[in-house]
Known about the structure:
The structure holds 2 protein chains of 2 kinds.
Chain A: E1 9-22, E2 32-45, E3 49-53, H1 60-67, E4 75-80, E5 83-84, H2 90-96, E6 100-103, H3 117-128, H4 136-147, H5 163-175, E7 181-185, H6 193-210, E8 213-217, H7 221-227, E9 230-235, E10 238-244, H8 245-250, H9 255-262, H10 303-307, E11 313-316, E12 319-321
Parallel strand pairs in A: 3-8, 3-9, 6-7, 7-8
Antiparallel strand pairs in A: 1-2, 1-4, 4-5, 9-10, 10-12, 11-12
Chain B: H1 2-29, H2 34-39, H3 45-55, H4 61-73, H5 87-122, H6 127-141, H7 144-158, H8 170-200, H9 203-211, H10 215-252, H11 258-268, H12 271-299, H13 301-305
Helix pairs in contact in B: 1-4, 1-12, 5-6, 5-8, 5-10, 5-12, 6-8, 7-8, 7-10, 8-10, 9-10, 10-11, 10-12, 11-12
Amino acid sequence: MQAAADKKVLLEVEHLKQYFPVKTDSLFKPKAYVQAVDDISFKLYEGETLSIVGESGCGKSTTGRAILRLDEPTDGKVYYSGTDILGLNKKEMRKLRGDLQVIFQDPFASLNPRQTVKQILNEAMAIQDVVEKSKRMDRMLELLGYVGLPPEALDRYPHEFSGGQRQRIGIARALAVNPKLIICDEAVSALDVSIQAQILNLLKKLQKQFGLTFLFISHDLSVVRHISDRVMVMYLGKVVEIADKKDLFDTPLHPYTRALLSSIPVPNPELKRERIILRGDVPSPINPPNGCRFHTRCPFATEKCKTDEPALREFDPNHFVSCHYAEKFM
Amino acid sequence: MLMFILRRLMQTIPVIIGVTFVVFFIMQLVPGDPAVLLAGEGASKETIEAIREQLGLNRPLLVQYFDYLISVFRGDFGVSLKNSQPVLDEILVRLPITIELAFFSILITIVLGMAAGIISAIKPYSLKDTMVMIVALLGISLPSFWFGLMLMYFFSVKLQILPVAGWDSFLHVILPSLTLGAGGAAIVARMTRSSMLEVIRQDYIRTARAKGVRESLIIYKHGLRNALIPVITVVGLQFGALLGGTVLVESIFAINGLGRMIVDSIRMRDLPMVQGGVLVASLVFVVVNLIVDVLYRFFNKRIELN
């Protein structure tokens, strides 16, 4: 892997916040907010796969949607090739959508049940105007070829396909507009393990073929290990650790990351491992804990953790951790 | 598709026979003897008996029923007891009026209801949404006879811009259709709203947004088309209620339609007329149901495949 310094930054997220208002019981109580994503920053380099991992509710999908402005972020900046996406008007944004595509988790819900595959693919191309009308048919057949579906698929409806095939349609749809960045929001989580591997390998192949950049959102660490170049761990709307995949899996520095990694099952029953079991539940993102958000469940928490919020610090080159005591784990 | 329509058509035959059966026997249960009524007050027993003989009312009920059934299939609905005119002639004059009324009412139900539902669903829980839903709730709650009278009072008596009653010009159509269609529109509005809200949350709507599809197209092409199925069902069901409603509305606005004819005939114990009217109304309902089923298939291709 190259040093990050000489790689081009494709997407830069700065201080992104996404708060959702929640209903309160009383008219007079102040409005409460779910702090789904609270002040996160990271960079995404061209051609790489950055994974976001974390428990459900940690804000990983919200981050993906906020970047695409599918939900309008509360605050922060998102630079794509230098331009601030959040400052674009509707028309400019629509144009940019050709570069940024998304693949969703549930292949049964992400395709309009009343459109044939042809209509699904054609609509994307027509809106972004990437292919001339006369050449669209060839392009569609080409796309189906890339994702390994037969040409007959064109005239069928989504419900006539299996989950894996539908996800292939979703990928073909995303590819149709020649995107640069694809956000895969739990793209394989709904699939059988054997199908997962197929789709992951397909994504890897396509990445190489078209020089795509992936932001890969997943809760499944073995999937993340397979596909990522770098990994970002989130907890309760905050980034707790970002590092190259190898560094993160070999020398996790944040107690939460360590706990997470220790939960990956190992196929060897003889192997004795240190299991870190977290007690308690994830606190509510409506009233997140003060200080380090993880202190309520952290086995190493001290008084300092309860009051001071740790900053994201660089320990090794490209290995960022937000923990007051990360040195202890090095 | 053709096979489906044919099969559905075949299914309507027993339904229609069942309708004739029910209509015929229910009329027998209605208190009051038509022969006595026809003969007038103070008629002698012999006269009443003679009328009975003449109309075949003294034969066994089953014989009367089969007799009736056979003539119905020959297109002979009998003659009115009141004025001895063929029932069918009278119905053929009145039916178009009622169909016209029903058509415009259902138009109002669909157009007004769906538009209101979409407006509500685009920004749920907004002021606009709340207002529309309050109006819809009123629309469901208000009885049509009261609503009709209020419309009549406001537009015809106070403002004097629309005719009070009758059925002569397009202007005459507006108030009765509004009265009849309002309740359905309110139900359709609520159905459209909830159905749209459900669909809008789906990932494929997000997919469409991510593609860069225009918001208006997202609403109509991706949203509405998928939200339409339950709405069609409701519209179909509403049509039944609508036919019943014509009876009221035609009476309020003094329209000489089928509904009013049935009411008048019931008052007169004019059995053949009532039977004919109800039978034709039922036939219309059966046909409309058939159309709804076909539309349903058209909009939901998945039904066809399974």
